[in-house]
Design a protein that fits this description.
Layout (H helix, E strand, L loop, with lengths): L11 H14 L6 E2 L10 E2 L3 E6 L7 H11 L6 E6 L5 H10 L2 E5 L5 E3 L2 H57 L8 E3 L2 H24 L5 H24 L1 E3 L1
Parallel strand pairs: 3-4, 4-5
Antiparallel strand pairs: 1-2, 2-3, 5-6, 7-8
Length: 244
């Protein structure tokens, strides 16, 4: 998920909405503003985190941070955040580090700066997780591309073999002596073989273009039908009709 877009933080409502947007960016996808009410000082809530947002001209002191921890504490198994536009006192920073509460100072355009050790550690964990997820995504994509390329090579070799077989069959069916029988391929065989090869090549092209092998059922039916057409086409070509 991309970082929240810059916005003017000119009210406490926008400060809370901005904090919720950043929490969603950090992985708390259900983070929402609580819309006021008696909620032990919580302004933004999610399943895995709680936050208090201060839109004031003075630094946040230790009592604010202490009340948040006193209401929820570590037993709640939720990450705790405090957001402030004016920053935090040294006593607030020390206490937040001791109880592992993340302190963030937001700018007038909504960006966030980590203000204590707990917040910086949280961002490091978030970045490490983001990199790991991206690497996994790239690895899956590379595996899919490798498998698609391998199948494309296999099908290309198969098509080359079929063309060689057809050329050999045609060459063997041509008679240069009188009285020697010749074989003529049936039109149905050519049609089936051509359709089967065309279906296989079409699937390969789509897999390469979409960088995906597609749904398992669709892939199985598609390739299975192609193979059936190719095999039946080869069989029909092999039988042919004999002309004296």
């Amino acid at each position: 998920m991309t970082e929240p877009s810059p916005q003017a933080i000119d009210s406490w409502e926008r400060a809370e909405l901005n904090a919720a947007a950043w929490m969603r960016h950090w992985g708390f996808s259900d983070a929402r503003v609580t819309n006021g009410g008696a909620d032990s000082g919580v302004d933004v809530r999610s399943h895995g985190a709680l936050a208090q947002v201060k839109y004031e001209a003075v630094q946040v002191g230790r009592p604010v941070v202490q009340r948040l921890f006193g209401a929820w504490g570590r037993s709640a198994e939720k990450a705790l955040f405090v957001f402030s536009g004016a920053g935090f006192s040294s006593h607030a920073v020390k206490y937040a580090n001791d109880v592992d509460i993340c302190l963030f100072k937001y700018t007038l355009t909504g960006s966030m700066n980590a203000e204590n050790r707990a917040a910086r550690a949280f961002l490091q964990r978030f970045e490490a997780q983001r990199v790991a997820v991206e690497q996994q995504r790239l690895a899956v994509r590379a595996d899919a591309e490798h498998e698609t390329a391998a199948q494309a090579r296999m099908l290309a070799q198969f098509a080359t073999g079929l063309r060689a077989l057809e050329a050999k069959r045609v060459s063997a069916g041509v008679s240069t002596r009188a009285g020697v029988s010749t074989r003529k391929a049936t039109p149905q065989g050519r049609v089936r073989l051509g359709c089967g090869i065309a279906l296989l090549l079409a699937w390969v092209c789509m897999a390469v273009a979409l960088q995906s092998l597609g749904d398992v059922v669709v892939r199985t039916v598609w390739i299975g039908l192609s193979i059936v057409l190719i095999v039946s086409g080869i069989a029909a070509l092999s039988r042919g009709t004999v002309e004296d």
